[in-house]
Every structure is written in structure tokens, then in C-alpha cells.
Design a protein that fits this description.
- The complex is a heterotetramer, with two copies of chain A (327 residues) and two copies of chain B (326 residues).
- By secondary structure, chain A is α/β, with parallel strands linked by helices.
- Chain A has eleven helices and 14 strands.
- Chain A has helices at residues 7-21, 45-49, 61-73, 92-99, 102-105, 153-165, 215-226, 245-255, 270-281, 304-310, 314-326, and strands at residues 3-6, 25-29, 54-56, 77-84, 115-120, 146-148, 170-175, 182-185, 198-201, 206-210, 232-236, 239-241, 258-261, 291-293.
- In chain A, the strands form three sheets. In chain A, strands 3-2-4-5-7-6-12 form a seven-stranded mixed sheet, with helices on both faces.
- The termini of chain A are far apart.
- Chain B has helices at 13-38, 53-60, 76-82, 86-93, 128-141, 159-170, 190-193, 218-233, 264-270, 273-283, 288-311; strands at 68-72, 117-121, 147-152, 175-181, 184-185, 188-189, 210-214, 239-244.
- In chain B, helix 8 (218-233) links the parallel strand 7 (210-214) and strand 8.
- In chain B, helix 1 (13-38) packs across helix 11, helix 2 runs parallel beside helix 3 and helix 2 (53-60) packs across helix 8.
- Classes of the chains: A alpha/beta (327), B alpha/beta (326).
- Chains A and C meet through helix 4 and helix 9 of A and helix 4 and helix 9 of C.
- The structure holds thiamine diphosphate (TPP) (2 copies) and magnesium ion (2 copies).
- The site of one magnesium ion has 6 residues of chain B, from strand 5.
Chain lengths: 327, 326, 327, 326
């Protein structure tokens, strides 16, 4: 019988399987233990693995990140929860100046298999400007980190296991707007390596790249445009670092048209980075100007009507696709 | 709410009745928020503080115009106690154009600069350094204004707390740090995250006076706050107040608060700050009719405020692009 | 008699002039008082304006940023020094979640005229991976901040005054490798507004954009290429937010070729953002693929020989320009 | 440097002589750094700790294999005291391929994991949380290993200090926090940034034992460290040690240390840990010839190490692209 799991349950399952199969794995963070996490993504782990493997911390994100670093240097595999990704700001130094650079600065004396899980994005939920950001974009200019942005329950499971197995620091962004989406799990879970994109829909007319909650509007736009005979290819990079440029380039070779859709403003974003890489490396592939459908260049407003305008909508994606295919 | 002229004086009966009315309005406001949330009319999260009203109201009664207050996401009480209008506070939580922040902040960011309610902050510890800034401005200009800063027990474990306490002390800033110890940080009991029973002990690490007070007793809270405020005002520097209190509801809308030991809530419901205050007033000779009138007035003003707020329009779409820069 | 000032002296002068002309300005930070600052950029201010206006703080960057925010909300004009820009990581929350968003989240109830000065960049000085970063790139995806990157003593003076005058939060990045460069000051200091680029050299064949220490290799490359008849236009944007796209587009309309040179790796950088903006908006202007000469995608190594390879060199700039003009 | 087998025992005379030799090597190493810097052979900045050697050496003598140590940019002494090789330490500062970190770290990041010198950190406070991580790993695995963490007086005002102290205490981690109070954070005297005369008072904020010790006295330092280490090892949790000491040079290469009150340096030069140690040894009956021999040996080993390091090649260009990821 196929099992159906939510994105959140898939995440819990990945941690549970890792805790069960590797004694050096532990899970910790604020209220992840007895309470099962603010997002309930660690539910049941405390009961199953006990207080030695699943630990509640004080509200001290700097201490959390540092503990993860030290433990990893000593060969453990810490999985820390930072709750809302926006709180990465209070431990930014630990992530950017210590975690990302330790291996390099010490000439490779050790590896740092740290996984930092955080509930990211989720604009649209009315959580306001300090609890809804697409925080993955803060870390792009920092060498030494891997950035994972799963969109489906299966990917959430596979990528979280890959992240925990990975010898390098991984920031694992769980999209808050996806926690409750459901999917059937395959009987045998596939192995997904960090740095491999997923083609979410095949098409020959335009390549659309999006992650997490932005995939749905893209797929909806693709369905809508199919009626008009526009075949949209939708690609989910799944990890921003490493980035699977090859899959995107292969698609672009067929479509010669590019749209990127992202739940973040343009400046300093992964979308801008991708467009810049592609035009530098594959200029001749572009038949028309690429378009990024980005969130607006403001903090995220609270009121529903405003927040909805902030986020890229299906209508905006359709418009962008029409523009690039008709240019 | 009327503020005292001379903060160090004990509250008159009228002032106490005033304080009661404010507490009742806050309670009514938060009860309504709870209902609105359940009805799906408020989005995101909301953090209610029923049971903690005396901390905010007692403190606000010790302030004067020009003083400033900063608080957390659990900041409805403090914001209203400073004098933010009920209707515009509802409006903000409902995401209306007339909301305190034009609908751009939401429940976790109620701010009404005009009344000195300088903001509700959703990052734990984030506002403590800012409270130092308000105090610095006061000292810089010699205005005597005092900066009051509310935060939770759990917040005393975050770095920003430490830096702010230290800076305030070494610079002798006119700031009063008020820790609302409600025994829990989210779902974690204090002792599981903090190796102390009495947070007030942390003050000595900054050579700062520390005071522990029953945060459910309006009068005691006012007295403690008054003393700290007048120290601050007269240039003697900051004080750390640990106010012992309790939240009747869960941490946020999604929390059924199962982590509570049996009977704990009941004990604290017995110590409800509003009912305690009523009791004190009755004992002091205030007529029960007057109290009933205050209850009714508060209920009316809350209901009226909510009705107005519900009828306000959504923010104009263009407003979302304003206020990123000046 | 024309006066010659170093970049550092120009910065000191700007603060001094602001302190003198506006009572609401104050300068504070670690060791900026009696000691005159670690970079000596506040030398003499303490003596001139006294301990009420020029203040030493504990090593508490979060408290520094918060104090600046609170003071600014109350109408003062704080000028805080964060010393090495890399330390912005320890107060990232204050900058990104509070300073940048306060005005927006409160519906515009106040303005926040905060200036945060920091010694940035400077790779090549042997300060290692935690004291040399081009930190301006961390803030690109955060709406609500202005980012200033002066390259000359005159600009350092004018832009710092503009920053302090500005009603919005400004992060002012002082390039550590430029502190000792000198220039003659004009008798009458010009007014430079944030968001106006400077054309550092005119040319018609290729537009080269660079900031701060990367301008010199670009100018050197331009001189070298002039021998071969390649006319290079070099533009210094001076501020990254707001960005003077117009000056760049005007140049591109003539040259149709673009090179960006930056002291930072590519992902999430201002250069990638610029290229992405331009290809989206001005695709037809490009006769060849734009090229970004970026620093390598690693933390900054310490050893001289390695660090020199990390930074874009004149040779690499020449090569990039040759590539775009010959394509 | 030889480590004691049983940390709680007082040092034997031989061990003390060993400690003296290490201190002399460290002093020699740092004096050479100073010269190299002046000669333009070392780039960037360098932070010397002449005068503070007894803190590191006394502590290292209390450790056993498997214990870990983290320190600051002013970390030459601590790194060498743990047993990092002199030549490769010079090599790192000179940016050589054979440097401890292959030339990629530099003076502020000396790290030699093999000997438990887990890193020198250049962001004030950055390593305190990491020290908790080492201690956590020890407890998780039940190894009894102790994590020792050095930092300065100025660092006690940064947020990471607070979070680390609290976590270590509430989790009873086997970590020893050693504050090297050298009276200044950069150019700022302690009292201008901190409202306390005795930093050891901060321990009580975390219900942690606190000890103040003469950091210039090798034996006393060793005794204090030993006790804290054995507490940690036996599961009793962390200790905070305030070691009173002084740096003879300025904060970094560019600092002439003009902020010192007249006569202060001289007083502390009198209390030089090396000369004090020599005195103690002489009084305990160690022959002056033996001491002279130790001095000579230390000088020789430093000179030899430097010569080797100077002759090492630059790192291979390709090495710069390694070690970003595993
Ligand atoms: C930096 C940061 N970490 C974590 C959170 C999530 N969070 C919100 S409220 C809270 C508990 C705070 O507890 P306490 O300070 O006692 O205040 P209370 O909620 O009890 O009023 C936590 C952990 C946050 N908002 N910011
Ligand atoms: C977060 C941070 N802020 C500021 C600095 C700059 N800085 C380097 S050392 C230092 C003084 C530290 O003083 P203390 O902790 O007493 O250690 P000491 O240098 O005296 O050994 C400062 C402020 C830094 N490296 N990191
Ligand atoms: Mg609490
Ligand atoms: Mg010191």
C-alpha cells in the first residue's frame, strides 16, 4: 500500500530514519523535543529517541549554531532547527563567518556535516515582515554553504537525508507554505544528490525555473498556456548551491527562452544570479530577453490584499511567459 | 489612559479605577482577537497575554508623556496601555487601512509612536538594543524621558539581552527593563532553558539594581515601576524588574498548552490581575456599581472599536510600495 | 591653496563637518573615541566634540545597531562604526530585520536616519577570511537599506555627508584598501546625491563597471587597451542602492558591451544583479555576452600568493574586455 | 608539551620546568613574530600576548589527550601550549604551504586539530558557542573530554558569551571558560565598557562556579584550571575562570598602547609570568644552570623552527580552491 505523507511528515521521517540509522545524528533546537517543534516537524522524535538525541535549547540561536559546529568538528552529525528562517539573522555570524569558513581557514583539517533546518518563505500566511522571508538569498555570496530548497514531500525526505549525510554545512529551507501538502511516497525512496534539478513539466517553448511555493503558479501557468499551444518546461533546481546549471542549459538549448519565478525581490537573489550566469555563459542560446518574475522590492506587508500583490501570481507568470515567447 | 503627573506617588483610587478600566479593555480586546482568530478573520499568528495585563498597565501608569515603551509580539497589552487607540489596534490586526501601521505590520508589530508605543518586535531580544537607543536619545537631549522595555523570561537567554543590559548600565541610560516572567518560553518551562529560579539575579551581572515583583498586582507593579522610572529619570541609570505573571492562553494561536502541570492554570486564574484589582478596590470602598459600570464601559468601548475597525476598508494597493524609504 | 586629503581624512572631515553643523549628529562605536578608531577614521573628533558626541562602546555590535535605531527614531542622526564590515554578521538581525523594516512595518510613522560606517573589502591586505569581505553583497536582497561604496576621497566626503543627511538607513562601506589614497579636494565640495554614478573614464567601445578598489585595475586595463585602440568607459556606481541604472544604460547604448568587475564572488552579488537587470531590460543593447570578472568562489585565503589570485587582477580585466569587444 | 596524567595533582618540579620551557618558546615565538612583522614579512595584523603565557600553559598542563581548546586571534600561546608545532605555526603566519592551515588561515586562525588546538577565532565571541559544541560531543559520546575556551575581558560584553555560558550551564556541559582579563579590549579599559570590577561576578548569572586567579602565576593558574577541568570531566558542568593578566605589547601591531596609565606596564613587567616562574623554581631548588639550559633550548627550538618555516615554499596556487567543500 502506498503511503501518503505531508511535506512536514516527510521531513520528520527523514530525521527519524537518520536518527535510527546513525548514532552520531542528533536533533536539537527550540522546542523541538517534547513539544515536537513549533511547526511540528519533529513530532514523535523525542518520544522515539529520547532526550539524549532530541534536545530542547534555550532561545539562543548563536549557541545553537556554535554547538552544531563544534559537535560536527568532532564527528557528530547535528541537525539543528532555527525555527523561522528569519532568525538566521541572529546567528548569521556563526553561519557565515564560522560554519562556512572553518574548513577552508583551517586548510581542510576537518569536515563540518552540519544541517540547519529552517522554516522559510511562506509569504501569504500573514506572518509579517520578520517571519516570512526567503532567507536563502542572504547566503548566496558566502562560499562554503550548501542551500537546499525542497518543493515536494518526496524531495523533502530525500534531500534532508542527503543533507544530513553530506560532509558539508547544509542550510535546509523548509517552505512554511508547503508543510501540509501531501504526496504518495514511492515504495523505494530514490536517492537524490544535492545539485540535481528536477524537471517538473516538459515543454519545448520556454524554460521556467522556480523553487518551492513558486512552482505551483508556474505549473498552473503552464496548464493555462498549453491551451494556447505554448509548451512550458518547468524546472525545480531543488538546491541553489550546488546549482544544476546543466539541466537548465539543456532545456534552454531546446527552448531558447527563459523565465525565472521567485518568492524574493530581485537584487542579490538566486534568480538574478542564474540569469547572470546564463547570459554570460550561454548568450547565444537566448532568443529573447530573459524575465524574472520577482516579489516586490519591499518588506513583506501583513494585510492579505497587500501580501498577495507582493508574491508572484500565476497571472504574472503567464504574462511573463507570453512576453518571452512572443519577443 | 491617564498618566500620573508625579510617578513616585502611589496611585489614587481614581487612578486605580482607571487602571482597572484599561485592563478590562485589554482583556476584552484580546478575547476578541481570540474569537477573530478562531473565525479566520485574523491571519498569521497572534500571541495573547490574558492574565499579564497588570504588568503593562501598572507600568504605563508610572510613565509620563514623552516616555517610550517597546515590547514583544505579545504586545497588545503594552501598546494599549500606552494609549494606542483600540479601534486602530483592531484595525491593524485585521489588516485595515486605518490600522496603526496601515495594515503593514500586523498583530506582532503594533506600533503607535504618537503615544510612545514604539513598537512590538517579533524577533526575541530584537528590541532591547533599540530601547537603549530611546534612552540614549533622552540622555543626549537631557529630556528626562524614560525608555521602558518589556520582554519575556525566555528572552533573557538571547545575546541581545546581555549586550543591552551591559550597555545600559555602563552608560547609565534611563531605561527600565521589565521581564514578564510567565514561566514559559513558548512550550519550554523556564528551568529547562535557564539555570536560575529567579531571573532578577541576572541584574547583578551588570551591576544593575534588580527587583522582583508580583506582576499580577497592579499596585505593586506600579510601585516597582515608579521607583525604577524615577531612578532612570533622575540619572541614576537602569533597573531590571522581574514581574512574575502568567499567560492564561497558549503561546500562540496554535498552542493548546498541554505542557502545563495539572492545576497550574487554575492557581493562576485565582490570581487574575483584574479580579484581584476589583477585590482591592471593593475593599478600599469603591462601590460595586462603579466597578460594574467600568466593566460595562470597557465592554462597550471594545465592541465599538471592533465594529468601527471591521468596517474600515482594506489598504489601498499602492500603499504597499510606500514607506520602504522616506 | 588646494588641500590634499586621504580617503580616511575625508571621512573624518565629513563627520567633523556634520558634527559641527548639526547638533543631532553623534558618532559612536568601539574605540572610536579617545583612540580615534581602529582605522583612525575618527581621529580628533573626540577631542573636538567631546564625550557627549563621540562615544566608545563595549564590544556589543547588537547594542550599537539598536542604539542607532532607537536614537534615529527619536530624531537624532547616529553615525555608528562597525569597524570591520565582517562584524555586521553579529548584528545582522538589527540591520536586516529591524533597521531595514521598521519604517515599513510601522506604516511610515517615522524615518530612520541611521548611518552605519564599516571598513569593508580590502582583500589583499592579509587580514584573512573573517576580516576582508565585500560585505555589501550580504544586504542586496533586503529592501529598506541604502548601500554606499565610495572610491575616492572626494566621494568619501560627499557621500558620507549625504548618508548622514539622508532620512533612511545607509550602510557606508569604507574600503580598507583605499584609506590611505590621496586626492586634492576642490575648493567648493560638490553635493553628490545617493544614486548617481560617476564616469571615471570615457570611452566608446565597452562599458566597464566597478566599485572601490576594483576601479584601479579597470583604469589600468583601460590605459593598456587604449594602446590597441580599444576605448574603455569606466563607471563607478558609487552607491549600490539606489543604483544609477540610467548612467549605465546610456553608456551601454554607445558601447553595446559590458564588463563588471567586483571584489566578491559571483553568486548573489551586485554585479550579477546588474547584469540580470540589464539583460532583462536592455537585451537588445548587448552585442556580445556580458562578462563579470568576479573574485573566486572561496573564502579569502591568507597567504599573499593565494590572496592575489583571489582578487580580480588587471590582467583578468584586460582579458575580459578583449573577450567582449572581440565577440 | 607533556600533559599531566592526573589533572588534579599539583605539578611536579619537572612539569614546572616543562611549563617554563613552553612559556619561553611561546615568548620566543611571539618576539620573532614581532620582528617579522616589523620587517614586513608578516602581513595583515598580528595580536601578541607576551605576558599572558602562564594562562595558556598552566591550563594546557591540566588537560589530557582528547581535550580541546579554542581561543582568539591572540591565540599563539594557547595554540602552542596545546602542542602545535612551532615551525608549522611560524609557517602559517608566514603563509607557507606547510603552515598549520596550509597558509589559508593566517595569524588570527592558527588551528591544529591534531593536538586539540581547535582554532583561533577572529570574531570576538565567535568561538564560545563552538566550545559548547565540543563539550556537547564529549557528553554525547561519554568520552569525558573537556573543552577549554579562552577569551578576553572585552568579549564578556558580546551576546555570544551570554548564550554560551547559559547553554553550558543549563546543559551542564564539560567546558571551562577562561577569561584572560588583560584590562583592555583593544584600547578601551575594562571599566569604560563594563560596569564591574570583577568579571568573575558574571558567573552567578548562570549559576556557574566562578574563580578569579592570578593568571601570571603558572602554578596558581594550573591549580585553578585543574579543578575546573576535573569538575567538567566528572560531569559537574562548566566553570568560569577569570585570569588576571596583562599584555606587554599593544593590542595589535598598529597599537602603541598610549592609553596606558603611566607606570602600569612596569608594574606588570615586574609580574612577568616567566620570570616569576623562574624565581619559584630557583626557590624550590632548581639549579640556575638547568634554567639557563631551558632558556637556551627554547631559544634554539624557536630559531630552528623559524629557519625551517622561512625555507618552506609558498602554497601551491591550486590549493586555494581546495577545502571550500569536502
Ligand atoms: C530570535 C528568535 N528566536 C526564536 C523566536 C521564536 N519565539 C517566539 S516567542 C518565543 C518564546 C519567547 O518566550 P518569552 O521570552 O518567555 O516570552 P513570552 O512569549 O513568554 O511572552 C520564541 C522562542 C523568535 N521570535 N526570535
Ligand atoms: C564581533 C567583533 N567585534 C569587534 C572586533 C574587533 N576586535 C578585535 S579584538 C577586540 C578587543 C577584544 O578585547 P578582549 O576580549 O579583552 O581580548 P584581548 O584582545 O584583550 O585579548 C576587538 C574589539 C572583533 N574582532 N569582533
Ligand atoms: Mg515567557
Ligand atoms: Mg582584553
Amino acid at each position: 500500500m502506498t503511503e501518503t505523507l505531508t511535506y512536514k511528515q516527510a521531513i520528520t521521517r527523514a530525521m527519524s530514519d537518520e536518527l535510527a540509522s546513525d548514532d552520531s545524528v542528533f536533533v536539537f533546537g527550540e522546542d523541538v523535543g517534547a513539544a515536537g517543534g513549533v511547526f511540528k516537524a519533529t513530532e514523535g522524535l523525542f518520544e522515539e529517541f529520547g532526550p539524549g538525541r532530541v534536545l530542547d535549547t534555550p532561545i539562543s540561536e548563536q549557541a545553537i549554531v556554535g554547538t552544531a559546529i563544534g559537535a560536527a568538528i568532532q564527528g557528530l552529525r547535528p541537525v539543528a532547527e532555527i525555527m523561522f528562517a528569519d532568525f538566521a539573522a541572529v546567528c548569521f555570524d556563526g553561519i557565515v563567518n564560522e560554519l562556512a569558513k572553518y574548513r577552508y581557514m583551517t586548510g581542510g583539517q576537518v569536515t563540518l556535516p552540519v544541517t540547519l533546518r529552517m522554516g522559510a518563505g511562506g509569504a501569504g500566511g500573514g506572518f509579517g515582515a520578520q517571519h516570512s522571508q526567503a532567507v536563502e538569498n542572504w547566503f548566496l555570496n558566502v562560499a562554503g554553504l550548501k542551500l537546499v530548497v525542497p518543493a515536494t514531500p518526496v524531495d523533502a525526505y530525500c534531500l534532508l537525508r542527503a543533507a544530513i549525510r553530506d560532509p558539508d554545512p547544509v542550510l535546509f529551507f523548509e517552505h512554511k507554505g508547503l508543510y501540509n501538502i501531501k504526496a504518495d511516497m514511492p515504495d523505494e525512496m530514490p536517492t537524490v544528490s544535492l545539485g540535481t534539478a528536477r524537471v517538473a513539466r516538459r515543454g519545448n517553448d520556454v524554460t521556467v525555473i522556480a523553487t518551492q511555493a513558486m512552482l505551483q503558479p508556474c505549473l498552473d501557468a503552464a496548464t493555462a498556456l498549453a491551451v494556447d499551444g505554448v509548451e512550458v518546461e518547468v524546472i525545480d533546481p531543488r538546491t541553489l548551491v550546488p546549482f544544476d546549471l546543466e539541466t537548465v542549459v539543456t532545456s534552454l538549448q531546446r527552448t531558447n527562452r527563459l523565465v525565472v519565478v521567485q518568492e524574493a525581490s530581485h537584487a542579490g537573489s538566486w534568480g538574478a544570479t542564474l540569469v547572470s550566469s546564463l547570459v554570460q555563459g550561454q548568450f547565444e542560446l537566448f532568443d529573447s530577453a530573459p524575465v524574472i518574475v520577482a516579489a516586490e522590492d519591499t518588506p513583506i506587508p501583513f494585510a492579505k490584499s497587500l501580501e498577495e500583490l507582493w508574491i508572484p501570481s500565476t497571472a504574472k507568470v503567464v504574462e511573463a511567459i507570453r512576453k518571452v515567447v512572443s519577443a | 489612559m491617564g498618566r500620573t503627573k508625579d510617578a513616585s506617588t502611589a496611585l489614587t483610587l481614581d487612578q486605580q479605577v482607571d487602571g482597572l478600566r484599561t485592563m478590562l479593555e485589554i482583556r476584552g480586546f484580546e478575547d476578541e482577537c481570540h474569537r477573530l482568530f478562531a473565525a479566520g478573520l485574523v491571519r498569521g499568528s497572534t500571541h495573547l497575554g490574558q492574565g499579564q495585563e497588570a504588568v503593562s498597565v501598572g507600568t504605563a501608569l508610572a510613565l509620563r508623556d514623552g516616555d517610550t515603551m517597546t515590547c514583544t509580539y505579545r504586545g497588545h497589552a503594552a501598546t494599549l496601555a500606552m494609549g494606542a487607540p483600540l479601534d486602530r489596534s483592531f484595525g491593524e490586526i485585521l489588516g485595515k487601512a486605518e490600522g496603526l501601521c496601515g495594515g503593514k505590520g500586523g498583530s506582532m508589530h503594533l506600533t503607535h509612536v504618537e503615544s510612545g508605543a514604539m513598537g512590538s518586535f517579533a524577533i526575541v531580544g530584537g528590541h532591547l538594543p533599540i530601547a537603549c537607543g530611546f534612552a540614549f536619545a533622552s540622555r543626549f537631549r537631557g529630556t528626562g524621558e524614560v525608555s521602558v522595555c518589556f520582554f519575556g523570561d525566555g528572552a533573557t537567554n538571547i545575546g541581545a539581552f546581555h549586550e543591552s543590559m551591559n550597555l545600559a548600565s555602563v552608560w547609565k541610560l534611563p531605561v527600565v527593563f521589565i521581564c514578564e516572567n510567565n514561566l514559559y518560553g513558548e512550550y519550554s518551562p523556564l528551568r529547562s532553558t535557564t539555570p536560575l529560579d529567579h531571573l532578577v539575579e541576572r541584574a547583578s551581572s551588570y551591576a544593575m539594581p534588580g527587583v522582583q515583583v508580583d506582576g499580577n498586582d497592579l499596585m505593586k507593579m506600579h510601585a516597582a515601576a515608579s521607583e525604577a522610572v524615577s531612578c532612570a529619570r533622575s540619572g541614576e541609570g537602569p533597573t531590571f524588574i522581574e514581574a512574575l505573571t502568567y499567560r492564561h492562553k497558549g503561546h500562540s494561536r496554535s498552542d493548546p498548552a498541554k505542557y502545563r502541570p495539572e492545576g497550574e492554570l487554575e492557581v493562576w486564574l485565582e490570581k487574575d490581575p483584574i479580579e484581584q484589582c476589583v477585590q482591592t478596590l471593593l475593599e478600599a470602598g469603591v462601590k460595586s456599581e462603579r466597578i460594574e459600570q467600568v466593566r460595562a464601559d470597557a465592554a462597550t468601548s471594545v465592541a465599538g472599536a471592533l465594529e468601527r475597525a471591521m468596517n474600515w476598508p482594506e489598504p489601498l494597493p499602492a500603499s504597499r510600495l510606500e514607506h520602504v524609504y522616506a
